[in-house]
Amino acid sequence: MKKYISKIHYLTQDLPNSSHTEQVQIACEAGANWIQYRCLSKTDEEMLAELHPIASICDDWGATLIITNHVYLVNQADIQGVHIEDMDADISLVRNELGENKTIGASATNIDQIKKHIANGVDYIGCGPFAHTDTKPNNCTHWGVKGYQDAVLALQEANLAIPLIAAGGVDITDVSALLETGIHGIAVSAAINKSEEPADAYRMIHHLVY
């Protein structure tokens, strides 16, 4: 089942001066239609308490709501899908648990992981990291623009197709060059959340993408 995948994946993050709910409200008002709730600091009960109002905001604005990693919470709120950050995860097991109607994304750092996720039924893949990121620290090699050019070419040569989302350290100044590689879209978090005017930052990115 082919699903709608936005070209801009907006991710919330744990911040001392802005709750996830506030971040979602700002993003949706600025035009976001794809929200990925990425919380690393709360219990399941605390996340659910936050997810219900977030889901209502997304519903009001017609935005897709995706949760990071917590598969078992997807059906406990009005959540459209999950993004799995474990590159070695077997997405077919997640698909069996959630069914065909839910959207499932996965992270990948190389073409072999991308091909494995495609075979296991993923709907889109967040790949990278593009550059240094403090949002999700890792020791993986930075892809840069060439990494996405290579990934697009490798999939074409293998006669495979999947929406690729550039993730990890993507800033406003990187958007145009990344989209020219032929990828589907970008994932952004700190570039918006840690800017002086998050709503304006989102609108700038939206203008570059669309």
Automatic annotation (TrEMBL):
Acyltransferase as UniProt keyword: no
Pathway: Cofactor biosynthesis; thiamine diphosphate biosynthesis
Gene3D superfamilies, per database record: Aldolase class I
InterPro entries given in the database record: Aldolase_TIM (IPR013785), ThiamineP_synth_sf (IPR036206), ThiamineP_synth_TenI (IPR022998)
Protein name: Thiamine phosphate synthase
Domain Thiamine phosphate synthase/TenI: 17-192
Keywords noted in UniProt: Thiamine biosynthesis
Source organism of the structure: Pedobacter alpinus
Protein origin, superkingdom: Bacteria
